[in-house]
Design brief:
By secondary structure, the protein is α/β, with parallel strands linked by helices. It contains 5 helices and 10 strands; from the N terminus they run E-E-E-H-E-H-E-H-H-E-H-E-E-E-E. The strands form 2 sheets. It has an 8-stranded mixed β-sheet. Strands 2-3 form a two-stranded antiparallel ribbon. It is globular, with a radius of gyration of 18 Å. The relative contact order is 0.14.
């Protein structure tokens, strides 16, 4: 494993980019199994970064370990906010994805503070008797998260369950599971955890078959 630290290069040139113009293309197979390119605008990516920073307050002392492909949409949604906040990124070799003991050692050795992965991996980490060290935030997504996946981790780590599609600029909704409940909110009793509320500056519509 190694740590990727931010490098800022300042060039004295005019920026003529407009918010609605394309920033990047991310390929996804979606539910069809056929790869398709999703064009993302500067406006939407900037809002994603802004929402991440406002919601999770990353800073120069943070290091994130993303347990997914470097080509995935969620990787883009995590690497940009951390670098914008002055934090670092720990990139793991494939062997750390396969052996849970090596993974937990990596988290503590490199002082990882933010971990991003899927619930199936979270459940394996949750079952380990280990000291999470500096780990303060765990971002879950890609699959349904259940209460049993995180029952031990919630004692020391803030857990976030997120949901989104590449077509909607990666993350659409999120919920912070072990923060104080807002006044008047009912505790969640369903073993499958909610995907929460929309990220900053967005709205979510729940539609029936008639749209």
């Amino acid at each position: 494993a190694f740590i990727l630290l931010p490098v800022i290069i300042i060039i004295n040139c005019k920026n003529k980019t407009k918010p609605g113009e394309a920033a990047c293309v991310i390929y996804t197979s979606g539910s069809t199994g056929e790869p398709k390119g999703i064009v993302m605008s500067h406006r939407n990516i900037v809002n994603l970064v802004y929402s991440f920073i406002r919601s999770y307050n990353p800073g120069p002392g943070d290091k994130i370990l993303p347990l997914n492909s470097i080509a995935s949409a969620s990787f883009v949604g995590e690497i940009l906010p951390i670098l914008m906040a002055g934090g670092g990124i720990v990139l793991a070799e494939k062997e750390y994805f396969l052996e849970i003991r090596k993974l937990t050692e990596l988290i503590t050795t490199y002082g990882v503070t933010i971990l991003s992965t899927v619930p199936s991996m979270i459940a394996r980490i949750n079952a380990q008797p280990w000291n999470p060290g500096r780990l303060r935030l765990l971002l879950s997504g890609g699959e349904a998260l259940t209460a049993g996946d995180i029952d031990h981790l919630t004692e020391t780590v803030t857990i976030v369950n997120g949901y989104g599609l590449t077509e909607s600029t990666i993350c659409s909704t999120y919920i912070i599971l072990n923060e104080p409940a807002s006044p008047g909110s009912a505790p969640q009793k369903n073993p499958v955890i909610s995907v929460g509320r929309p990220i900053i500056n967005t709205q979510v519509y729940i539609l029936d078959r008639h749209m």
